Amino acid sequence: MGTVLPFLGKTNMADKQSDNSDRDSPLTAARFLDIIKSQAYQETVQEINKPAFDHLTSELQVLRGVISQQNAQLQECQQKIEMQDRRIKQLEECVLRQERSTRLRNLRVSGLTGSRPEDYKDQFVNLVMSNQEIQLSHDDFDVRLPRVNKASKDPTPAEATSQNSDRDTQPAQQKKTTVTVIFKNDWIRRQIYMKRVKIGRGVFLSEDLTREESTLFYKCRMAKKDNIIKSTWTFNHKIFILTNEDIKVEVNSQEQIELIARRGSKVSVASTSNGSSTFLGFTPAEVAQASATARTWSRSLEEEIKMLTNSH
C-alpha cells in the first residue's frame, strides 16, 4: 500500500493526512477529467503502453519482411510460369510443325474395301493407273488401316461357334472404310492429289489434316453447303475458299468463316505479293468509307505541317 501512481497524489509523510483525505473524498467527474488530462497520467499511460507498442512495431516489421520475401518468391514463380508457358507454346508449335511435316506425304482415301493392307493396295493401284493414268507400284506407298476398337467384349464359345457357322453360310460383306496412304515420294502424291477428281466414282481423296485443320475445313464445307461461299479445298495443309465473287482466299481461323456468314459473301480481300489473297473482314462499303476518312486525315495533317513550317 506504500507506492501509488504519480497522478493520484503525493506519497510523502508530510502530506499523508491531506493525501488520505483526498483519497477518502469521492471521485467526481471533474476530478477524473483533471487526472486524465494531467501530464503524470499521460506519462504513466505511455510508459505502460510502450512495451506493447514496441512489441507490435517489431512484429509488424517482421511481417513486412515476410510479406516482402513472399512477394519476391511469388514474382519469381510468376516469371518461371511465364517461361514455362512460352516453352510449352514453342514445343506445341514444334510438335505441330513435325506433325504437318509427317502428314505432308499422306493421303486419306475413302471408299475402298478390304480386310488387309494388300487388298487396299491392289484397289488403289488399279484406280490410279486406270483412271488417272499415273504409274504407281506397290513399293511406292504403304497403307495404314484405321484403329480397331478393342473395347468390345470378347464373344463366348457358344457365340463364337454361332458366328463361325453364320460366316460359313452367308457371303462376306466388306464394309467401305477410310485408310491412310503413306507415299515414299512426295511428287507422286502431288500428282495423284492434283487428279483426285479422276480417281473413280465413290472413292475420295483428301489430305491428312491435323485436328485443328480438319475442324476449320469442316466449317468451310458447312459454309459451302449453306451457299455462303462457292467452293473450298486444301493444298499442302492450307485451306482455301472461293467466294461467290470468284475470289480465292486463304482461311486461317474460324472467325473468318463466322464473319462471312454474318455479313454475307461480299467481303473484302487484299492481294499479297505472292498472288494469294488475305481476308480483311470488311464489306467494300466499309473499306471505301475508311479510305475516305484516311484521305481526309492525311490532308489535315499536311495542312498542319505547312502551318508549322511557315510559322518558323
Architecture overview:
The chain is α+β, with helices and mostly antiparallel strands and 312 residues long. Among the domains are: 104-146 and 174-208, 2-Layer Sandwich (Alpha-Beta Plaits), CATH 3.30.70.330; 209-281, no CATH class. Helix content is 56%, strand content 13%. It has helices spanning 16-24, 29-37, 39-103, 117-132, 157-169, 186-194, 211-225, 254-263, 284-311; strands spanning 106-112, 141-144, 177-183, 204-207, 231-235, 238-242, 248-251, 269-271, 277-279. Strands 2-3-1-4 form a 4-stranded antiparallel sheet. Strands 5-6-7 form a 3-stranded antiparallel sheet, covered by helices on one side. Strands 8-9 form a two-stranded antiparallel ribbon. The longest helix is centred in the first third of the chain and has 65 residues, at 39-103. The termini are far apart.
CATH topology value of the domain at 104-146 and 174-208: Alpha-Beta Plaits
Count of DSSP strands: 9
Terminal-residue CA separation: 93 Å
pLDDT < 50 stretches: 1-16, 165-172, 270-278
Give the integer mean of the pLDDT values: 76
CATH superfamily of the domain at 104-146 and 174-208: RRM (RNA recognition motif) domain
Quote the beta fraction: 5-15%
Q: What is the CA-based Rg, rounded?
A: 44 Å
> How many helices in DSSP terms?
9
CATH hierarchy class name of the domain at 104-146 and 174-208: Alpha Beta
Q: Helicity range of the residues?
A: 55-70%
